[in-house]
Amino acid sequence: MKNQTLLFCICLMAASLVISCQKDNKQRSIEKVKVPDAVLAQIKTKGFSTRNVHAVNGGYLVEGDIFLSTKDLAKKATANKLRIAKTEQYVTNNQVSGLPRVITVLVTGLGSAFVQGTDLAIQRYNALNLRVQFQRISSGNADITIQGFYEGPSGGYITLGSSGFPTDAGDPFNLVQMNTHPDAYGSNPDVLYVGSVIQHEIGHCIGMRHTDYMDRSYSCGGDPVDEGDGGIGAVNIPGTPSGPDADSWMLACSNGGDRTFNANDIIALNYLYQ
């Protein structure tokens, strides 16, 4: 494998630093909180990896950048457990409903690189002419708020960003969090890189799981891990190939640079929202 740099959980092997995306809205203690075995069992039942789970405000962060609230973990599994392929585009049981729909996005308390990165991500989504469109607003209540927090490395990890999945009512997840610590994006964040991370996190907000959820070793290295389908769902999207795709914008791990939709990603988004 050429690169083992996580796009949202960057693995810098040379520096012995693993970057994981954790959810929080304030600077917090760097002491890692032990996750109870009962919670790990719930996470496994829901179909997510139990490796490197982090306790955060209101729930837990799994798979590097996905927030599961304690309410999410308490939900019973649904019947939707369709799995066709071993890799490629997967979606949760919940998607955004009420289409066509404009999803408003508010960037608050972040520098210009994050604002420009948000505009870039929105431009890329809207260029697909989907029935879900995005619009950045400068004030008021938004469907998705993008905000920052400042946190350095903790236990070998540093936060880049996080988000979650749509609600049962068909609304997008309402929060994307981005780390403003220089160890996350540097003192002069690259707009293309920041925009690509925001683009990925918005993908989760509208229901996309990691492309390689069935075998994270493909993009992240290490042992193959089947994260399952559990209550949150992992439904293969018809028309996407059954083989690995090294360029998907929803891969769990990447080279940490600019990444946008490839042809198969567009097929997946069109299937859901065209």
From TrEMBL:
Family annotation (InterPro entries): MetalloPept_cat_dom_sf (IPR024079), Peptidase_M10/M27/M57 (IPR024653)
Pfam assignment, any one: Peptidase_M57
An example molecular function term from Gene Ontology annotations: metallopeptidase activity
Alphabetical list of PROSITE patterns matching this protein: PROKAR_LIPOPROTEIN
Record SUPFAM superfamilies: Metalloproteases ('zincins'), catalytic domain
Name of this protein: Dual-action HEIGH metallo-peptidase
Organism: Chitinophaga niastensis
